Amino acid sequence: MAQISPGLAGGKVSIGYGLGGLPDIIAADVPLGGYEIKASYLKTWWPRLNGIPSESLVGLELNGIYLINVTLGVFHAIDRRQGSKNTQLSIGGGIGF
């Protein structure tokens, strides 16, 4: 799978592999869950609220989906700026299909 995620202060491009087919909860045989593992490139283009200027990061994300979506990621700065950390963790979530 390939994914582009634009944002207000940055963007992300990801490629990865998804596994679907967790047990169905409705009779229509529609899979409602799965997992994804993604390699991502993240670029911020405006300074963040903590004052750190734009930077580029690469990392891995694991996404679990079963009516809710939970994403955990680890990113490493490839153009480290003063005041930023080498390794950053991310977490995200959502509800829906």
Describe the structure concisely for a colleague.
By secondary structure, the chain is mainly β. It is built from no helices and 6 strands.
What does this structure look like?
The structure is a single chain. The chain has a six-stranded antiparallel sheet, with no helix packed on it. Strand 4 (56-66) and strand 5 (68-77) form a beta hairpin. It has strands spanning 2-6, 10-20, 33-44, 56-66, 68-77, 87-95. It contains no helices and six strands. The model has no long low-confidence stretch (mean pLDDT 81).
Strand content: over 45%
- SS field, number of helical segments: 0
Low-confidence stretches: none
Specify the biggest β-sheet: 6 strands, antiparallel
Helix and strand arrangement:
Elements: E1 2-6, E2 10-20, E3 33-44, E4 56-66, E5 68-77, E6 87-95
Antiparallel strand pairs: 1-2, 2-3, 3-4, 4-5, 5-6
What key attributes describe this structure?
97 residues, mainly beta, six-stranded antiparallel β-sheet, 6 strands
